[in-house]
Amino acid sequence: MDVVVIGTGTAVPSVRRSSPCVLVHVGQTCIVCDTGPGALRQLCKAGVSISSIDYLVYSHLHIDHTADFAPFLFSSNYDPDNPRTRDITVIGPTGFQTFYEKLCAVYGTWIIPHRFSLLIHDINSKPFQGLDCVIKVAPVKHTDTSIAVRIEDNGGGSVVYSGDTDYCTTLVNLATGAKLLILECSFPEHMKRTGHLTPSLAGRIAREAQCQRLMLTHFYPACDAADILTPLRKEYSGEVVIAEDFSSVRL
Predict the structure, then answer these.
(1) Are 225 and 212 in contact (CB under 8 A)?
(2) CATH number of the domain encompassing residue 177
């Protein structure tokens, strides 16, 4: 299992950080979690053709996590050299089907698949069995329908991606024993906002979940000038990666 954080930023434009996107390779399966603005270009820079993506997974419907979904469909239809011909599965929170239908009401046949099928799964608690993996989700504290995602391979590897969230026990339970836990860390300690994590809260979740490795992402600009590790270390003593765009981990 190979994990690449394609974008480590937020809704606020940043020269240093692109908007949220996480790439997971499990065997022959390519999974992309969230596609914020610019994610398709970032994936190209990482050497990933969008035609190779098997699953798109969305943590919630905020624009900074979904903005490149419509461009993905548009490009899949109209790439003159490599139009998509194989089906794509989308796993998202409750309401994703309605979200897609509203996009279609705006863009019409530009984003309605021409040569492939779009398979949308709104999942809450029932695991999704993929080709080389199992995908599980749990509700988290951000929007009413936000979810975190756990991807498990057939060899015991596991990665959990929080999306946007505040501290919640549902996330701790989903992340228990994960080989890699990817948590948002939106704000420094002194700038706590409801629905988001600070370093100490991220550390608390990692400690309570007993994950093997913690990777932090989704940094608002204030985080780049702040001390992230000191408050985090008061809660968690394990391995920590403060991600930059294209940071990668092999499990």
Answers:
(1) no
(2) 3.60.15.10
